[in-house]
Structure to design on (625 residues):
């Protein structure tokens, strides 16, 4: 009796310990990473990782496939760049403008998209995001094909000089950790539980009296706002905002990162983003077009490992031994 | 000079014609999407790539083998349709038991690969494709000048759309297809080879897209990007029409093409977003789409 109780206790405790170790090691790696890697590369990686994690909040935890997240990512980049360059706002406020703009866009696109489900939802988000792309192409403040160039990084809170890449890196890392913490909080809240129940069985969630539409819209807007956070920071890192970030290819890229890393895992998209960004950097100097590889990886992922890297690890013998669980259905 | 709502009649009719041409392509493509979705429950994102492949096949046949427009009109859809059937047999088939989203993602990857490859081989700029001599030139209709080829595209695509509709609604093969759409297990138990029907359907859908591509080659340039530009609009068309009805897909395609053309006359700035705006309005009023049965 005592033995089983003891074992049970151990079983309950060990995942927490293992996860804390993993978390600590991961954080230490990210803190030390600028010693080994080029900071701009790392910052790009973190921006895309946050983007993919925010996207996964919608796909992995609510079961909604948005094909239009580029609108929020690129849109926020434009808003932040414009606010900093033209209005002279400090970086932290500029990023907030980007987040607010992305959230507002999320309300509008989400309002239309949640009227249909499944495959139609994906097509509607794609079409509306394309509409936003055409808007960005013609609007004056985006400067069309040129984009908004040479955005000053400025001083964070008035005294941290972000033009220094070390400062900038730790700022991006702080934003990333904050973003992940928010996502973690959302998916482990009662709200997040209801999102998961919608993913698993929408009809039952409705019959239990939840206004599924409001929950979906809520999740959509939160995902859009967090995507905006990533987009705003990206504009600050690269000091420009262009049409590339609002195009449909970008929406496809974030889907790939999430799929590759593991749909419905908190940190999977981080690995997916890492792989995709590394691949892009590697191929950037060669003649070979990235889209061919991207497309092939897409097909391979869908056909062969739909759980993604982290999902496969959680599901492997070692992962289970370490107490990870992966419940997302495929 | 005659005017209509303050717009010269010539310009008005000219844009109407362009609208009808675009509408023909929207109709052909959304028809193929609807047929594939009806039976396979897969949204074929590669439809744009297959349209591009059709145009490229015609161009390659002409420039490398000296095969002209008329044989290409049959050969290109045949080749692309065969390729589609092979893809269905070897890969797409494994995804039927999964969430339909995976079919969308797989065909998206396929589209990226195909487009990337053609971009790598032939560059992003377009290749011209000459109008066949038989259809060159134009006729003066009295009130406007009609290039013969454009008239041909409208007439031929209308005939193909109606022909496909007839095959599906009135023939025995069509009745098998419709029955398999409703209840594949039951149809199979009657001894009908449903897996073969699925392969045939995907091949047919891909061939229709390629046919649209060959038709488009002399009008637009043959470019690797021509497919991804049009597929997103066709998705909006499909959302407006709802994929429940074949005729619905055809009518919506022409309607939205004309709406786009007319917007170009009255408010050119909005011409490339008007279809998306119409989609948003339809979603507000009739979320299931104009001809849709599924909510």
């Amino acid at each position: 009796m005592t033995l089983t109780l003891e074992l049970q206790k151990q079983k309950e405790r060990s995942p927490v310990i293992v996860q804390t170790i993993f978390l600590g090691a991961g954080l230490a790696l990210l803190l030390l990473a600028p010693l080994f890697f080029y900071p701009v590369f790392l910052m790009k990686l973190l921006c895309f990782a946050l983007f993919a994690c925010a996207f996964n909040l919608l796909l992995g935890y609510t079961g909604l496939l948005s094909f239009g997240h580029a609108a929020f990512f690129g849109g926020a980049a434009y808003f932040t760049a414009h606010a900093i360059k033209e209005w002279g706002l400090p970086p932290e406020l500029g990023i907030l403008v980007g987040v607010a703009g992305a959230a507002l866009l999320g309300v509008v696109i989400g309002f239309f998209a949640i009227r249909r489900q499944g495959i139609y939802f994906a097509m509607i988000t794609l079409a509306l995001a394309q509409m936003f792309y055409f808007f960005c192409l013609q609007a004056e403040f985006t400067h069309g094909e040129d984009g908004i160039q040479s955005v000053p990084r400025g001083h964070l809170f008035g005294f941290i000089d972000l033009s220094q890449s070390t400062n900038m890196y730790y700022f991006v890392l702080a934003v990333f950790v904050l973003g992940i913490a928010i996502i973690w909080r959302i998916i482990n809240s009662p709200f997040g539980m209801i999102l998961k129940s919608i993913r698993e069985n929408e009809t039952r969630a409705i019959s239990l009296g939840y206004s599924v539409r409001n929950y979906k819209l809520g999740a959509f807007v939160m995902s859009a706002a967090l995507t905006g956070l990533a987009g705003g920071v990206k504009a600050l890192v690269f000091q420009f905002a262009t049409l590339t970030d609002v195009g449909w290819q970008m929406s496809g890229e974030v889907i790939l990162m999430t799929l590759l890393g593991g749909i419905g895992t908190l940190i999977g998209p981080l690995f997916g983003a890492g792989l995709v960004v590394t691949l892009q950097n590697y191929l950037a100097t060669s003649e070979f077009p990235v889209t061919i590889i991207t497309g092939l990886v897409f097909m391979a992922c869908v056909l062969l490992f739909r759980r993604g890297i982290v999902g496969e690890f959680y599901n492997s013998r070692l992962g289970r031994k370490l107490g990870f669980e992966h419940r997302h259905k495929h | 000079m005659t005017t209509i709502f303050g717009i010269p009649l010539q310009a008005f009719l000219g844009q109407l014609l362009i609208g009808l041409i675009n509408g023909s392509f929207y109709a052909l493509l959304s028809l193929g999407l609807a047929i594939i979705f009806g039976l396979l429950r897969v949204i074929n994102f590669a439809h744009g790539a297959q349209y591009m492949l059709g145009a490229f096949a015609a161009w390659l046949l002409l420039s490398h083998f000296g095969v002209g427009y008329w044989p290409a009109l049959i050969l290109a859809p045949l080749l692309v349709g065969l390729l589609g059937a092979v893809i269905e047999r070897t890969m797409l088939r494994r995804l039927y038991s999964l969430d339909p989203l995976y079919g969308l993602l797989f065909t998206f990857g396929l589209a990226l690969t195909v487009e990337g490859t053609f971009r790598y081989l032939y560059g992003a700029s377009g290749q011209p494709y000459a109008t066949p001599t038989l259809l060159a030139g134009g006729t003066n209709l009295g009130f406007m000048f009609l290039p013969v080829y454009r008239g041909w595209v409208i007439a031929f695509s209308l005939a193909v759309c109606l022909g496909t509709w007839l095959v599906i609604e009135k023939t025995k093969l069509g009745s098998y297809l419709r029955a398999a759409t409703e209840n594949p297990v039951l149809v199979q138990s009657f001894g009908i080879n449903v897996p073969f029907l699925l392969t045939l359907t995907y091949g047919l859908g891909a061939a229709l897209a390629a046919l649209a591509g060959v038709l488009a080659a002399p009008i637009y340039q043959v470019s690797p990007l021509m497919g991804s530009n049009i597929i997103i609009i066709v998705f909006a068309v499909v959302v407006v029409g709802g994929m429940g009805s074949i005729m619905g897909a055809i009518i919506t395609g022409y309607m939205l093409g004309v709406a786009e053309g007319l917007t170009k006359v009255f408010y050119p700035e909005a011409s490339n977003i008007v279809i998306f705006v119409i989609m948003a309005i339809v979603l507000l009023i009739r979320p299931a789409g104009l001809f849709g049965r599924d909510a």
User: Anything to note?
Assistant: Chain A has 14 helices and two strands. The first strand of chain A starts at residue 155 and ends at 156. The longest helix of chain A spans residues 2-32.
